[in-house]
Model the fold of this input.
Amino acid sequence: MTTSTVVAGASGGCLVIDPAVTVADLAALATELGELGLRPAVGWSTHPHWDHVIWSAALGNPPRYAAPAAVTLAETERDAIREWVRKSVPGHDLSLVGQLTALDAPVIPWDGPQARLIVHDGHAPGHGAVFLPDSGVLVAGDMCSDLEIPLLDTVADDPLGDYRTGLERLASVPGVRQVVPGHGHVGDASEFQRRLAADFAYLDTLALGKPFSDPRLEDGPDWMRTTHEEQVRYYQGPA
Ligand SMILES: [Zn+2]
Done:
């Protein structure tokens, strides 16, 4: 349930997606990259939640991008996001948290392996998954997890519709051989299909507006059960 970090690039400059999460983790990441002869040339944050917008001076000062709607939220919620980081993983340089530049483009501009962007709402505004076609890796952000239920952005106008659209966009990416969720295990192509089906089924059941459970809740943390109950209540309507 920690936050996945993905690095792309064979030598020289590399792309760093969602570096996370503790001060020690980021220090170890910087050391490991150095040992591999890599230095961050560009950063990407999949979405504007606190555990996906952290950075460290040890990673240098490359452009750090996110989708425009994600950057807008990171800016309007800056103080709250930094407070979450301060409380949850103390010791980070908070001035680097959420320092993102809006990128409205089909691919991340850099000279390493092609990194296609799949931007949608649903979990958070401007959620940007990254597909690396050379390796068939889909960096799914907080979607397609084997451990987390779909977590909806319930302040949006159409949370279910947004989430469905997001899943449909991810499902239509051709050539996915590995899926990397922000929290959970890496899965192969058939596991990717299983997770898409499980998440569509969760949304369909949620829309019925009746209490239900999901296998991922059984061993999940208390906060996830609470969030699930809130999502159920949201669609239950007046009794
Ligand atoms: Zn998130």
